[in-house]
């Protein structure tokens, strides 16, 4: 297999995607961040501190294990990379630890973040508490309601949660507010972005911090089986856990599958299947695929899973899609819920609804996967405790 071209280029482009589409006032801040990140990247002391935190505070490496009963049932091997076992319950903390160390290096005293499911907000609040920094987290009112547990967790950790009532009152709107705040307070404030989205250097930086998932998984899979997986499957909201696990395998003969949210069904228009049906456009500082109408207005996304409920996607995924390096498919709320129950009952693991989308894809595609005797690695990006109320509400509301 030919080696892939390294992206992004020096302008932060992934093919035609990515870049920096921001107000002029933010360009110096993005330049300052790029320089600080490049210096940190080449500083062994930065990596030593980050690695020690990931090991002793976050609990890495996370285990990788064969899901025996699920494998039995499907008739091929399924392995789970257990990002749900990280401190705070999801992969998000891999990135917030890196960005908070960078904020401290840059002498920034105030931290802001956006959050959808609340996992990134909790991870940011946690890292800020650890270093005695003040954090303010923007969260759409809709998400404040459906992720009440995570709101309380952030408050317990000393962060202020700022509800956002504009637009669809979800992650897109929370991100708009966070960017607005950053433009105003750029000298003192570090904006911790939670996925591989936003203007350069964020998509690259978040990918690099999350690539610990794939580095570990590649080694663990080889130790366990003597070979590589045939397929890697991960849910895609903004795209950070998926890019984190894909990246170490990009030059391997391994199929990479990103699973988006089909919500109530693609045909209903109520979904978050950005790559599957989106068009090129600009959102939150970079060019990528987007859900938009014929006039270029951003369309509201829908998913039962707050972490996938975003009308955009990271530019590197748009690039992977266009060059054919990864495949993107979509799973409905209903299919994800069925998988949520199956994994709970078969493996004793209650997955995050986001992660349940990846499990559902494997269940849905079981016939061709069985035929190939596939070895499938699922990135279990988070645990489902935060989703239990949503699942109960949904199922009680849909009782026939
Ligand atoms: C557990 C979990 N998985 C996946 C996601 C989706 O984000 P990303 O695509 O950046 O990994 C989220 C976002 O909140 C999440 O909490």
**Which regions have little confidence, pLDDT < 50, spanning 5+ residues?**
none
Bound molecules: pyridoxal-5'-phosphate
> What best-fitting shape do the alpha-carbon axes yield?
globular
How big a fraction of the residues is strand?
15-25%
Structural commentary:
The protein is built from 17 helices and 15 strands. By secondary structure, the protein is an alpha/beta fold. The strands form four sheets. Strands 3, 4, 9, 10, 11, 14 and 15 form a seven-stranded mixed sheet that branches. A four-stranded parallel sheet has the order 7-6-5-8, with helices on both faces. Strands 1-2 form a two-stranded antiparallel ribbon. It is globular. The protein starts with 12 loop residues before the first strand and ends with a helix. The structure holds pyridoxal-5'-phosphate (PLP). Pyridoxal-5'-phosphate is lined by residues 90, 116-117, 119-120, 195, 235-242, 307-308, 352, 354-355, 381-382.
